[in-house]
Write a structure and sequence with these properties.
Elements (H helix, E strand, L loop, with lengths): L6 H12 L1 H9 L8 H8 L3 H13 L3 E6 L2 E6 L2 H15 L10 H8 L1 E3 L2 E3 L1 H12 L3 E4 L2 E4 L1 H9 L16 E4 L6 E4 H13 L3 E3 L6 E3 L1 H10 L11
Antiparallel strand pairs: 1-2, 3-4, 5-6, 7-8, 9-10
Helix pairs in contact: 2-3, 3-4
Length: 237
């Protein structure tokens, strides 16, 4: 059986994502957390019954997956590939006609630092990616990324253990187009491991009910020391 996507298959998936409620559901799951149907109903702005129908269609198309914990059901994106597709659509949408909408604190927080499924996005992600490229710890070319031997040593010393085994189908190091900054940031297993390490050190913390990440005072000192972010970087708009 061929795995090549036909025009009909692509159109079917695009049609599913093209519904506003379903697009809101998938966008909510871009934070990397599994959410309940009730939480997703609030994100989608529709009733619980309508949400149930949307979730069934998304699950059938393998865009989301369901997990059970006791009596509760939680939904998450089915794969990093789905997250990457959503991020690409967000970048395309952000590049479209400007909407006259005031930028509020929530928007600024998302643009500074946020989760993009399982890695960091926003201005912080770009600053970290620039540092890694400038030091030749990673090499980015034509949308692809590779980690150097010096990069492996840097991440090992930073407490990020990385396996270079090809057993995982997911790329170790890749880029993802940032919808707010219009430039690629670090993704793949390396990007996910970096976010995990920053959360473990509490240099960044997740904010409730949003994809935004808050940079802590400890994080400011650590990011300045290890990743050489300027002291005034955190105060820039």
């Amino acid at each position: 059986m061929s795995n090549v996507a036909s025009g009909n298959t692509i159109a079917e998936v695009a049609s599913l994502i093209g519904d506003v409620a379903r697009a809101n559901i998938l966008s909510a799951l871009m934070g990397g957390h599994a959410l309940t149907a009730g939480e997703l109903a609030r994100c989608a702005g529709v009733t619980a019954q309508t949400t149930s129908g949307h979730l069934a269609k998304l699950a059938e198309a393998k865009l989301i997956a369901m997990e059970r914990q006791g009596r509760h059901r939680y939904y998450r994106l089915a794969s990093p590939e789905v997250a990457h597709a959503m991020q690409s659509l967000m970048a395309v949408a952000a590049a479209g006609p400007r909407r006259h909408r005031p930028i509020g604190p929530r928007d600024e927080a998302l643009r500074t630092a946020r989760t993009c499924y399982d890695h960091i996005a926003g201005r912080l992600a770009l600053a970290l990616t620039d540092f890694l490229c400038d030091r030749a710890f990673i090499v980015v070319s034509d949308g692809a990324a590779t980690i150097t031997d010096e990069g492996l040593q840097f991440f090992a010393e930073f407490g990020v253990g990385l396996s270079t085994s090809k057993s995982s189908a997911r790329p170790l190091c890749r880029t993802c187009l940032d919808w707010s900054e219009r430039r690629p940031h670090l993704a793949g297993r390396l990007g996910a491991a970096l976010l995990d390490r920053l959360l473990e050190l509490r240099w960044v913390v997740r904010l409730p009910d949003t994809r935004a990440l808050e940079i802590t005072s400890t994080g400011r000192r650590g990011l300045t020391s290890v990743f050489q972010l300027p002291h005034d970087w955190f105060d820039r708009s």
